[in-house]
Design goal:
With about 170 residues, this protein is an alpha+beta fold. Helices cover about 40% and strands about 15% of the residues. InterPro entries: Cys/Met-Metab_PyrdxlP-dep_enz, Cys_b_lyase_bac, PyrdxlP-dep_Trfase, PyrdxlP-dep_Trfase_small.
Length: about 170
């Protein structure tokens, strides 16, 4: 019986949200790809996971099947940077910590994948980033210390791969 009885007020809120959904999704998608490209230019190769980036696993499928991207992407946190991540997440002023993707509020969610289904999976911590509707400069101010941490030294992933540090 759950979900069978929806109040008129709930229907009104859902319909009102549908009116602006296209604008909200376009904004979050645009900001997410801008941030993903900015981060990719500063960190070791392979650490930014966004299907719209040509170097990302699955990019060819994404390019074939999609016209745009959502506001969610990930950054692989190198093993040598994992210890400092909780303090940086706590210091974030605009992002909240949570895992409810696609909403109006920007979220950060550190996670690990204990079982990988394919060869593209990364061991260790992956930071999921969901872009909402907040000011881009405020969002970048929260992300920049995390990007600086990831970019600060040569990266040793938990898989044993060593990536050279990129010059800025």
């Amino acid at each position: 019986m759950i979900g069978l009885g929806v109040s008129p007020d709930d229907c009104e809120l859902a319909l009102r949200g549908m009116e602006t959904m296209g604008v909200r999704l376009a904004h979050s998608g645009r900001v997410a790809i801008e941030f993903a490209k900015r981060i990719e230019s500063r960190v070791a190769p392979g650490l930014v996971l966004h299907p719209a980036l040509p170097a990302a696993p699955g990019h060819d499928v994404w390019k074939r099947d999609f016209a745009g991207a959502s506001g969610v992407f990930s950054v692989v946190i190198p093993a040598n940077a994992e210890e400092a991540l909780p303090d940086l997440l706590t210091a974030a002023k605009t992002f909240s910590i949570g895992a409810s993707w696609g909403g109006t509020h920007s979220l950060l969610a550190p996670m690990t994948i204990s079982r990988a289904a394919d060869e593209n999976a990364h061991a260790g911590t992956i930071l999921r980033i969901s872009i909402g509707l907040e000011d881009e400069d405020d969002l970048w101010a929260d992300l920049e210390p995390i990007v600086d941490l990831v970019a600060s030294e040569p990266t040793i992933a938990k898989t044993g791969c060593t990536y050279p540090a990129q010059q800025q």
